[in-house]
Amino acid sequence: MTGSAAVWDQYPSPGRWTESAACVGDPSPESWTDPSSPADSARAIAICGRCPVVAFCAAYGRDTNAWGVWGGSLLIDRK
Fold first, then answer.
1. 9 by DSSP, 3-state: which?
2. What is this structure's pTM?
3. What is the pLDDT of residues 22-72, one digit of tens each?
4. Which of 57, 15, 7 has the alpha carbon at shortest distance from 33?
5. What angle do CA 16, 3, 78 make, to 5 degrees?
6. CB-CB neighbours of 43 under 10 Å
7. Which residues are bridge partners to 73 per DSSP?
8. Taking Cα atoms as reference points, which of 45, 71, 74 lies closest to residue 56?
9. Of the candidates 3, 59, 7, the residue with the CA atom closest to the CA atom of residue 34
10. DSSP class of residue 68?
């Protein structure tokens, strides 16, 4: 699987709002899941900055302790 679909498959279904996310179809899913790479994380967070559903995504990341970038923040930032 390619793109951010691989990222979504790692978690319980976050909801239909993901269909409108700016990251859908992103060719670099490692940007969303590898917090050990500051450059990848910064790239992912920048995409969140123009996302129309960033608030839903941030709430999902916070409520589920989801790994990686969700709503413009990393898990460590949401704790």
1. coil
2. 0.75
3. 998 888 777 777 777 888 889 899 999 999 999 999 988 898 888 889 999
4. 7
5. 65
6. 16
7. 70
8. 71
9. 7
10. S
Give the position of tokens 């989801």.
66
How many CB atoms are closer than 10 A to CB 53?
21
Written as six digits, the tokens of 27 are 């060719």
Q: Can you read off the two tokens belonging to residue 55? A: 């608030």
From residue 76, alpha-carbon distances to 9, 47, 60, 79 in Å are 21, 19, 15, 6
DSSP class of 32: H
Question: Which amino acid appears at position 69 of this protein?
Answer: V
Quickly tell me which residue has 């409108």 as its tokens.
20
Two tokens, residue 43? 């790239």
How is residue 72 written in tokens? 């413009």
Q: Could you identify the residue written with the tokens 């691989």?
A: 6
Q: Are 41 and 35 in contact (CB under 8 A)?
A: yes
Residue type, 58: A
